[in-house]
Amino acid sequence: MEANGGDVARIRSELKSLKAAKSDIETRISGLEAQLRDLTLLNASTVSNGSVTGDSSCNHELSPDMIYRYSRHLLLPSFGVQGQSNILKSSILVIGAGGLGSPALLYLAASGVGRLGVVDHDIVELNNMHRQVIHTESFIGQPKVKSAATACRSINSMIKIVEHQVALRTSNALEILNQYDIIVDATDNAPSRYMISDCCVVLGKPLVSGAALGLEGQLTVYNYNGGPCYRCLFPTPPPTTACQRCADSGVLGIVPGIIGCLQALEAIKIASAIGEPLSGRMLLFDALSARIRTVKIRGRSLDCEVCGENAAFTQKQFRDFDYERFTQSRLSTAPSKLNLLPAESRISSRELMEKIVKGEPYVLVDVRPEHHFRIVSLPNAVNIPLSSLEARLPEISCALNKEGITDSEKGANLYVVCRRGNDSQRAVQILHSKGFTSARDITGGLEAWARDVDPKFPTY
């Protein structure tokens, strides 16, 4: 039996209202938990100052609730009361509440970090769910910082969670990072990595840095006990083609989860002053082979522009430094939009749809990699990946002839599509150089098709 349109609208409206109410309730709960935490700490302080007498004669400031909560930590001979006390007095900032930051934040909150900060300016999306385990579906469309803070408070109401719902930039990084003892870099782009590392050097903060892409991950600690900083290892930024992001290349969800947990571990080791942090060493993780190995990395470079022997990198220089220009890539998490072609060499998805409806003959070449093409594709599209385009030009000529498009119209009604409209422009440039002078790319790619033509068309 078909659902009534009015009923569907009513249910959706009621569901939206309930979700909003749930969010308000969670916020109120978080506030009450924070009040309870403050009162608990006050009571604990009163006990330790002798206002309340008891049988306990332990020389530490752990309240009964703390002893019970962290008892498994306290039972470890190498960690014990001193390690836990150190963590409770520490402050740690996690930059990024995504795939790496999610598990790091959860475990740092659970371990009892006294003040835990989180920086992120993004919102929760459905495609975050497979790896960003701190977020839930009920927070889709809301700030990641709010979602992460709520989750951390639900785990441990006794610690202080600080929300920084901002994009980290040179204009605010010094002020934010200076409030914490240890910094955890859970970002995924080159300009952020250089910026955070340089800021840590200027402020004298240890930096726990992790990365995950595809089926591999890595982890190290920078600027700790005379160890190297990020620039010591990479004085020159890698080519932009080597700086891939999960949104473009993909990642198996559990890989950043594993690296994020290890980042939390390194931060806890530094905060509690136990063990041997990964300074001067790098941990490499290969998910497919289940191999974890640790390699020695170069030490601090005396010629490093930021932490070297004669370096004079000041706070003012940091604020004025253009990290996007330095790395030739953007700080923004939004996908880049190229503009390589004149307007006459481009066509909108709506215009293409109109031509299809009119029954005009056409050839549509999809230049995405084959495994992308298998996810979703437009009807009648021919998959010729950009990397093999020049070698497969005869296939395009045959397809044009099959549609009755003559040689005198070479390239006419030949359209090129990709995911976002970047590779399709590169492909059209190649086609023009090879004589297909009328070829045009579809502006905005499949994402524009889903937005402007068919809202039910899957995006990824």
Care to describe what's here?
With about 450 residues, this protein is of the alpha/beta class. Helix content is about 40%, strand content about 15%. It is built from 18 helices and 13 strands. The strands form two sheets. It has an eight-stranded mixed sheet with strand order 3-2-1-4-5-6-7-8, with helices on both faces. A five-stranded parallel sheet has the order 9-13-12-10-11. Helix 8 links the parallel strand 4 and strand 5. The radius of gyration is 27 Å and the shape is globular. About 5% of the residues have low confidence.
Q: What is the averaged pLDDT score?
A: 90
Strand content: 5-15%
Helix fraction by DSSP (H/I, runs of at least 4): 40-55%
The neighbouring-strand order within the major sheet is 3-2-1-4-5-6-7-8
What is the straight-line distance between the termini? Answer: 32 Å
List keywords for this structure.
single chain; 460 residues; alpha/beta; 8-stranded mixed beta sheet; 5-stranded parallel beta sheet; 18 helices
Q: What would a concise description of this structure say?
A:
Pathway: Cofactor biosynthesis; molybdopterin biosynthesis; tRNA modification; 5-methoxycarbonylmethyl-2-thiouridine-tRNA biosynthesis. It contains 18 helices and 13 strands. With 460 residues, it is an alpha/beta fold.
Secondary-structure map:
Blueprint: H1 5-48, H2 64-69, H3 71-74, H4 80-88, E1 91-95, H5 101-111, E2 115-119, H6 144-155, E3 160-164, H7 173-177, E4 182-185, H8 190-203, E5 207-213, E6 216-222, H9 230-233, H10 246-249, H11 254-272, E7 281-286, E8 291-296, H12 315-320, H13 323-327, E9 346-347, H14 349-358, E10 363-366, H15 370-373, E11 381-383, H16 393-402, E12 414-417, H17 423-433, E13 440-442, H18 445-452
Parallel strand pairs: 1-2, 1-4, 2-3, 4-5, 9-13, 10-11, 10-12, 12-13
Antiparallel strand pairs: 5-6, 6-7, 7-8
